[in-house]
Amino acid sequence: MLVVKSIRNILIGFGIANIFLLIFILFAGAAGQTEIDIDILRTQVIGSICFGAFCGILSLIFESQRLSIVIKTGIQLFALLIGFAAFGYYLGWFRSLEEMMFMLIIFMIIYVIIWLFMYIIQKKLADQLNKGIK
């Protein structure tokens, strides 16, 4: 079952990463960048897919029954920040340390917003299931 969940999460990560890459390319085109080197594009696509797979695998931490939600979230956020910084540095997403720090802060804000949204959805679902049991 873990293998199936791993493959599912990796594929979801691939999709999300490529959606973000497409959005970036669209914004770059709107900003006037009309040409891109195919080798750079290939590197960015492969790097984005690898980062997506990395994120997908990390989400498996939430399958653990031994750790609290706070510990799981902390581990995942820390690992994602390290991964984002490493992939971003390697793929040239940042031009300076200041830019990298700014993007890491934006990444954390987006993570917290998504986490809170998912938490609220899961809490409502649990409440509905509990009402159905009573």
TrEMBL record:
<feature type="transmembrane region" description="Helical">
    <location>
        <begin position="44"/>
        <end position="62"/>
    </location>
</feature>
<dbReference type="Pfam" id="PF11457">
    <property type="entry name" value="DUF3021"/>
</dbReference>
<feature type="transmembrane region" description="Helical">
    <location>
        <begin position="100"/>
        <end position="121"/>
    </location>
</feature>
<feature type="transmembrane region" description="Helical">
    <location>
        <begin position="74"/>
        <end position="94"/>
    </location>
</feature>
<protein>
    <submittedName>
        <fullName>Small-conductance mechanosensitive channel</fullName>
    </submittedName>
</protein>
<keyword id="KW-1133">Transmembrane helix</keyword>
<feature type="transmembrane region" description="Helical">
    <location>
        <begin position="12"/>
        <end position="32"/>
    </location>
</feature>
<keyword id="KW-0472">Membrane</keyword>
<keyword id="KW-0812">Transmembrane</keyword>
<dbReference type="InterPro" id="IPR021560">
    <property type="entry name" value="DUF3021"/>
</dbReference>
